[in-house]
Amino acid sequence: MPLRQHPCLAACLPIALLPVLALSLALPAAAETDPRQVDALFGTVTEKAEALAGRAHDAGTGALPEALRDLDYDTYRQIRFRPEAALWGEEGLFSVQLFHTGFLFESPVYLHTVEDGEVTSLDFDPARFRYDDAAEHLPKQDLSGAGHAGFRLHFPLNRADYHDEFAVFLGASYFRLVGRGQGYGLSGRGLAIDTALPRGEEFPAFREFWLIKPAAQATSMTVLALLDSPSLAGAYRFDIAPGRDIQVEVTARLFARRDVDKLGLAPLTSMFLFGDVSPNPADDFRPQVHDSQGLLMHTHADEWIWRPLINPRELRISRLNDENPQGFGLVQRERDFDEYLDLESRYERRPSHWITPLGDWGPGGLELVEIPSDSETNDNIVSYWVPEEPLHAGEERTFRYRIATFDANRPEEPLASVVSTRQGWGAIPGQSDPPPRSRRQFVVDFRGAELSTLHDTHPVAATLEISSGEFHELQVHQLPDGNTWRATFRLQPDGDNPTDMRLKLMLRDRPLTETWNFVWNPNELR
Questions:
Q1: Nearest 10 degrees: CA dihedral of 12, 15, 21, 24?
Q2: Are 391 and 397 in contact (CB under 8 A)?
Q3: What do you get for the CA distance between the two ends of the chain, in Å?
Q4: Cβ–Cβ < 8 Å for 417, 448
Q5: In the beta sheet, which residues pair with residue 317?
Q6: Kind and range of the H or E run holding 496
Q7: pTM surpassing 0.85?
Q8: For 48-64, what is each residue's pLDDT tens digit?
Q9: What is the pLDDT of residues 456-512, one digit of tens each?
């Protein structure tokens, strides 16, 4: 499975070369675009998606003006949007800036604005951009068909006198969100299709957007989108509310052209190069390098499960089965600069994303894909929900969910959380007859909630379940800070078979912590 290029190179992955489809829509004139008009427009976009799915998929050529076809990264970076040309500018709290095509972004998307009940196509205008240094020599007269690669939304998020960038829609179906005080990290996607299957993944792409201009003092706005892919087409609605945490309600109406073997809902894409659970120290001055530290899930049965991420030696795919989960997401828990020591990347400021399903999602599984990587410029972590019921040709389906940014912990989680996972050789220092290196010692630290209020005389105990092999010397201790408790054990795997482990701390048969869940593969030892 190929690695995805990390968004820091050009804010997104390479996009599939898909054609753009011009749609001509009109709304009745009104003083402002009210909710009923937005609903009507979304209905029209839905009809267009259904009609699109009824036709054969056209892969197109993604043709750009010749001057843009072979842009390299450095030249593309010299094309910058002029802030003074932002849509809506000082007319309200929201403004929009645009991305140029070229480099990785070879398929233009059609953009429309909806103002006062009128839909207006947003034509490409090179005057909105600065072409500096190497880009200065691009022939502007030949760029009339360049189109736009995407857009970003601005709002006075961190300061009242400055419009901060807080959301980006750029490349395939990718979008990125940051809350107050955060920096860009992981990405959301409209949809994942056939991820990690042998024949290769299919990348749906947003081909057209409608930007609904909010009222001057509105604190939320709506974006509509048309998605297309060889297997299906879809209409999307994003109701976006910036703040300390960004809240986005997503409605996806999907229409299948052909059978979809694996439909991935609410996908998140991130990066994990190395961290505290990595079995081998990296040749790097930084102790950790990752956009996300773990996968968190809140099950239908009210269990909270934490799965630490790894950068594996070979492709790893795992699934947590459930029915109508309450939520899941990729989390960057460690928020201390000293844990990363990176002044440029500032990994401690990377956002976490939480998915809350709305309505009935039925049975299925939360799938986690971990891909080997040797560079932090590659996205090698993907998570998404896979419904048990497949999507067949000719069928339509609607899914709704909320995606929200946050920092370390979900406010609704009542239990202590995992703060670190470490492992190493399970030998005793100075042991004359040490065990094989396959014997591992695991050290898991928990902190927070009621657990951090207990005295070391309280009978806190650990429960551990493993799928194979044997464990020994399961112990629990309070650490000197008085707030953190540590569980340790030694694992002897069964040959080369992976071991699925579940650990939590209890007080008199009552859980105090989320469930630590980790799969150890003996061949991770190098």
A1: 0
A2: yes
A3: 21
A4: yes
A5: 369
A6: none
A7: yes
A8: 999 999 999 987 656 67
A9: 999 999 999 999 999 999 999 999 999 999 999 999 999 999 999 999 999 999 999
